[in-house]
């Protein structure tokens, strides 16, 4: 099946030539097979993530109950709202994902997926473009099983039980816990089984890890971030720190730093064109975000303790500016325009508190602009609080206390900046300098040069140009007789010489996706498009050999001519 960039189907034949290299092989071309195994460190990381989740939620609920017993009903209501509302949003989104993944029909009509028969034999394309007899016939030929709802009575009872179990899980706000446990189970299963079962469990574990990372990141910035600002503001206004307040604020801060670092690790692990992030680098990144977000939220709390109305205006203005800045950067994360806008609005919330990479190119420039903006805002907010701290309600802070608070903000931000430089200069997966450059180029191991799947650099062509000039008749005739490039693109600043083209590996089944591959730091389409994910899992379970994933490549003259009238 094939799909145009605007969603309408086009023919697959001659659209993706056999020589187009695999850009998303399930076996990462730049990692050894041992690096793909589920390790004890991965298991411990998941257990620690569960601990952080429970600590954050339990401390907030405990603090809300304490406010109620102390008759601080306003604080109780605000604390409880910032717990319940984000949790409900996440549960609804999680149940929607489950309902689609567990639906009775196995449809995948968005992107193009075709399986090529194994071991260099003649190709037999399997298409799910048509929902009629043609698609069903091809699925039957490939051995693809019918939908899960076609079984007998025992199968129907099992499905009802699963629906009921998931409904109970989501009603009790435990979707995150279930997904963590499920990811842990799939990881252990991939460890115990051999190929091809190991590969299947590993795929499912990565899909589950991607889901829980997105859900927890959303929940952290909808719940933990405002909860942290609220509790710090209450402590500053009351000039005292209750043990439960300190516990809740600390758990919220750790949850924020943990989740944004965990998200980056899972994202890198999911892409075969990026080197994975080590746990040492993740810990340093946690410290980076821990101190910078701590300084940021403390500056917010100081300002909000005196200027509540102006603080709300400032937050809304900052969010609008950052959202427009992100939209202007033309991100490519989602599968539709409206989903992309909503995603940009959510990233705008993240940008209120910390840096979040949405484009790989010109990272240094954009990060420098953001860091300077945040630094100026922190200085301005803290200065206004220091000058007008005696005008707020119940404000009797001494000069010594005020100086200490200013020093805490400054030192925390300085420590966060220090760990940021440590990460980018010493522990970045792409090297000491490449993390700040225009194009990230990593050194390819010598043994990986023997793999045909790594014959092209990851940033060669991952999306079609905005406009393609129509080829004239004379040029069209010349193209058929010329083996060279139809057009050449000047290499970007700092780019290294690309690796020589090697003959791509053709043995084994191939799942061809007629979509351009999204550039990092976006998720691959088979991670965010659930219909495509479902198709891949079905075809992968039916194939005798683990299939490779191949995205559309516009690197040949034949493809440019084919797509110039369909893009």
TrEMBL record:
It comes from the Eukaryota. It holds the Pfam family XK-related. One of its GO terms (cellular component) is plasma membrane. The chain crosses the membrane at residues 72-93, 242-261, 281-302, 309-329, 341-358, 367-388, 400-426. Residues 1-33, 451-475 are annotated as: Disordered. It is found in: Cell membrane; Membrane. It is a multi-pass membrane protein. Keywords: Cell membrane, Membrane, Transmembrane, Transmembrane helix. Belongs to the XK family. This is XK-related protein. It comes from Amphilophus citrinellus (Midas cichlid).
């Amino acid at each position: 099946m094939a799909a145009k960039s605007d969603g309408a189907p086009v023919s697959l034949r001659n659209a993706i030539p056999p020589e187009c290299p695999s850009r998303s092989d399930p076996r990462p071309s730049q990692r050894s097979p041992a690096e793909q195994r589920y390790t004890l460190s991965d298991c411990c990381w998941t257990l620690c993530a569960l601990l952080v989740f429970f600590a954050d939620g339990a401390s907030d609920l405990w603090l809300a109950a304490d406010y109620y017993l102390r008759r601080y009903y306003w604080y109780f209501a605000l604390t409880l709202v910032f717990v319940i509302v984000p949790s409900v949003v996440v549960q609804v989104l999680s149940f929607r994902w489950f309902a689609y993944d567990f639906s009775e029909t196995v449809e995948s009509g968005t992107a193009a997926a075709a399986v090529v028969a194994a071991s260099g034999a003649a190709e037999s394309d399997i298409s799910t473009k048509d929902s009629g007899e043609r698609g069903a016939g091809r699925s039957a030929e490939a051995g693809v099983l019918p939908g899960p709802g076609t079984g007998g009575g025992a199968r129907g009872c099992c499905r009802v039980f699963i629906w009921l179990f998931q409904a109970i899980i989501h009603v009790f706000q435990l979707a995150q816990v279930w997904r963590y446990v499920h990811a842990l189970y799939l990881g252990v299963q991939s460890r115990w089984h051999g190929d091809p079962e190991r590969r299947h469990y590993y795929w499912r574990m990565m899909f589950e890890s991607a889901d829980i990372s997105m859900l927890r990141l959303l929940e952290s910035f909808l719940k933990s971030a405002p909860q942290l600002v609220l509790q710090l503001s209450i402590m500053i206004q009351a000039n005292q720190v209750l043990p439960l307040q300190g516990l809740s604020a600390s758990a919220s801060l750790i949850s924020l730093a943990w989740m944004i670092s965990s998200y980056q690790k899972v994202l890198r692990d999911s892409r075969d064109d990026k080197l994975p992030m080590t746990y040492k680098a993740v810990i340093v990144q946690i410290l980076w975000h821990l101190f910078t977000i701590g300084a940021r939220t403390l500056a917010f709390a100081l300002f909000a303790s005196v200027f509540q109305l102006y603080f709300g205006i400032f937050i809304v203005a900052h969010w609008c500016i950052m959202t427009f800045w992100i939209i202007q950067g033309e991100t490519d994360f989602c599968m539709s325009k409206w989903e992309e806008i909503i995603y940009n609005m959510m990233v705008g919330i993240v940008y209120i508190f910390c840096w979040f990479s949405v484009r790989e190119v010109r990272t240094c420039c954009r990060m420098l602009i953001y860091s300077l903006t945040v630094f100026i805002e922190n200085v301005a907010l803290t200065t206004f609080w220091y000058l007008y701290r005696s005008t707020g309600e119940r404000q009797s802070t001494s000069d010594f206390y005020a100086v200490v608070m200013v020093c805490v903000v400054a030192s925390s931000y300085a420590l966060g900046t220090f760990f940021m430089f440590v990460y980018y200069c010493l522990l970045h997966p792409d090297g000491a300098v490449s993390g700040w450059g225009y194009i990230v180029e990593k050194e390819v191991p010598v043994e990986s040069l023997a793999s045909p799947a790594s014959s092209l650099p990851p940033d060669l062509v991952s999306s079609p140009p905005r406009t393609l000039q129509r080829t004239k008749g004379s040029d069209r005739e010349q193209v058929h007789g010329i083996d060279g490039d139809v057009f050449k693109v000047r290499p970007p600043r700092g780019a290294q010489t690309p690796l020589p083209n090697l003959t791509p590996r053709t043995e084994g089944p191939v799942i061809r996706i007629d979509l351009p591959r999204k550039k990092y730091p976006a998720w691959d389409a088979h991670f965010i498009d659930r219909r495509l994910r479902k198709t891949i899992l079905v075809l992968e379970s039916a194939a005798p050999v683990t299939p490779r994933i191949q995205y559309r490549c516009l690197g040949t003259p034949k493809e440019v001519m084919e797509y110039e009238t369909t893009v």
